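Database export, one record per block. Field names are fixed; values are copied verbatim from the stored entry.
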Amino acid sequence: MKNRWRIIDTGPADAFTNMAFDEAILRGYSLHSSPPTFRIYGWNPPAFSFGYSQDVRRELGIEAHIRSTTPFVRRITGGGIIKHGNELTYSLVCAKADLGIPERVVSSYKIISSFLITFYKKLGLDAAFAGDVAGPEEKLGRPSTFCFDSKEKYDIVVGGTKIGGSAQKRSRSTIFQHGSIPFGALEELLGAPVKADELLALLVESFVTTFSIIAEEGRLSGPEQDLFECLRERKYRSREWNLDRIDKTATKNDYAHRAALLGQ
């Protein structure tokens, strides 16, 4: 029987809203109160996002950016700095079984990201995983401050150029992944303008057909909405989280409150 997935299109939002929403659907699923979810969104205004472990002050001289008009936010996933703006972004949360991934598979990244290969091929692009086409002289996995300056073996490339990027956060039972598809890169490769609504529809179609799922439009539940608002205001808008990785929601009482909100 096909798995049922909740599809949520939230449209463009600010950096703090986007990251709080992603964590809300992750927490909801992890506490067994929410369905597997595929989300599509954008960024307005443009913003920087940083990897979970990055030293923001050291790597970008962030004090200057604090005084600038460009927002920045720390992700719950790893990787380097990404400048978000003119792009289509996705996130998903599930267990391996929700996508038909065998439990014995140690790395789920390539299997999950296969829907992106499908998406790019539907656009007429010869997309592949970097590790499948890299020459012997190419160094994959080389650390870099900025996400698009390095390639991992499961990054997607077209003609040797990295296009978009994705990152994961995993526990024993849950997989969370999000990634970006820059419109500018697509337009350069296609030699023509792209339409956001058409790309969004194609991305969802690629996800549904790749994994043979049943897609149902959805939204946050009431408890997830409460959790999202808590995370946005107390975590993602805070200097403590974005500069020093201090999560003000991670107290014992807050975790108990979150579990109560989600019906646990």
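Remark 1: The first helix runs from residue 15 to 30.
Remark 2: The chain has one domain: 4-103+170-261.
End of record.
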